[in-house]
Amino acid sequence: MQLLPVILFALAVAACAPARLERISERPRRAAASTSNDLHRAFDGASDPAATRALGRWLESAPGSESAIDGYLIRFHPGGVGIFPRNYFDKLEPASRYEVTGLNHHRVEGIGVPLIGHRENRHLQPVEKWYPPEGITRTVTAVAVPGPVKNGQRSVEIRLYDRLKTQTATIAGKPHALAGDFTVPWAALLENARPLARSGITAVLRKQSSREPGFALVEEYDPRRTPLICIHGLFSTPLAWAELTNELWADPAVRKRYQIWHYLYPTNAPALYSARVMRGQLDELRKFLDPGGDDPAMQRSVVIAHSNGGLLAKSLAVDPREAFWDAVFTRPLSSLDVTRQERRTLDEAFYWKPRTHVDRIIFCSVPFRGSNWANSWLGRFGQRLAAQDDRFQDFFRGIEKKNPGMLQPDYQQLTRGKITSIGALSPKQRSMEIFDALPLVRGTAGHVISGSRDLFVAPSSSSLPGAESSLEVPAGHGSFHHPQAIAEIKRILALPPAK
């Protein structure tokens, strides 16, 4: 039994890349006259380090409305495409105040002040349902744009650029590269989300997770950029994508083309059950963001998935038709005594349609044919420890009560016994065999990344027939953390649409 903590630790390491912010000691304050002069120079358009620091300090306590300072009339840009209004944030803080450990620190030189934009998620706007509950953090670059002098006062406009969307600022008809810090604002959100890391393990051991499944947009929705959907694996949470998200945001080509969404689900239920919930939530999110269905962003999606999450991802791009229903039930759906809602749930669980907007899926260490670990003594012990999601089994019990004899012999455990994500990963599971035999639909390209030292998923299980590309990296189960894997993901993201 002493191996169990080792296994859980290995899975946790594979699933999570920790990050921390450390506050840098403040430099001794300069004389008030010098500081005031630096701020005036910043208002006049200077972007040297002293002027930038002065502007950053002023912005921390600056009022959101118009203000007059020593002959300057300061206004904030009201907001628009790629620019935040001042009242969007509860707090602005210079990114230069922090150092990051646990992640590569990505920043670029240019004009403006890189800031952390903080906003508590109070669900004041409908879209905030789809933002992380830990808070809304944005990568901001502030630029002071001097204007004309009127009545002895120079007008100055402060623009708070969304640095993930905007690379340059046009001032006086000339484009200027914007400074930016892509890591500190991300690490600030990760700091707030640190308690989520523990839920990766506890969600398997508890009947009810502390967090409901759902998507989290970790940047503001952009109707023009392709969603890049990240789905974590067993014993994990979206914090698994901390490192990869940081590396992708540092790449200007990726930033220009993609926006990143994370998906969280409790990993105690079988993958196919979680997949049904995820598909419904994805449909809901897309309809909310684009009710008319005509945003360029909604025409194409790319998915990156790790381990068990890859099984959820594959469900987006296969057409099961009768394969699962005939294996599970002894009679057709039309003959069952079920309510309208139960019929709708069964239809989506067994006859779901592929989501045609999914263009490419990158599968990282995915057990397409199960894992022998699930059949080992360790897997059986984990199966006993794992909590069952009762909603899954209660649903089938309620239907069977009205329809006795509806289940095939191989699927009697749907209403009795214990069904968890660990047991469902057994290579001997009939559902695993059926799901593995389903090919990706035409128009969706599959890519495989695996680790040569993976203790949980054998090479024979992680391969995908018909994959457009396959890469094995010298890593364990957390293959997507490896630099070669990150480079491969960037290569795939640069490819044209598969359709």
**CATH homologous superfamily (4th level) name of the largest domain:** Alpha/Beta hydrolase fold, catalytic domain
pLDDT under 50 segments (min length 5)? 1-14, 200-207
Based on secondary structure, the structural category is alpha/beta
Number of domains: 2
Strand content: 15-25%
End-to-end Cα distance, whole Å, is 49 Å
Q: Please, how many helices?
A: 17
Considering DSSP H and I runs of 4 or more, what fraction of the residues is helical? 25-40%
State the shape: elongated
The biggest sheet amounts to:
7 strands, mixed
CATH-level-2 architecture of the largest domain? 3-Layer(aba) Sandwich
CATH fold node name of the largest domain: Rossmann fold
> What is the radius of gyration computed over CA atoms, rounded to a whole number of angstroms?
26 Å
SS elements, strand count: 20
Average of per-residue pLDDT values: 88
What is the class of the largest domain in the CATH system? Alpha Beta
What's the SSE blueprint?
Layout: H1 3-15, E1 20-23, H2 32-43, H3 49-61, E2 67-69, E3 72-76, E4 83-84, E5 91-94, E6 98-101, E7 107-108, E8 113-119, E9 136-150, E10 153-162, E11 168-171, E12 174-177, E13 180-181, H4 184-192, H5 196-205, E14 214-217, E15 226-231, H6 242-249, H7 252-257, E16 258-264, H8 271-289, E17 301-306, H9 308-314, H10 323-328, H11 340-350, E18 358-364, H12 377-385, H13 390-402, H14 421-424, H15 430-437, E19 445-451, H16 459-462, E20 469-473, H17 483-493
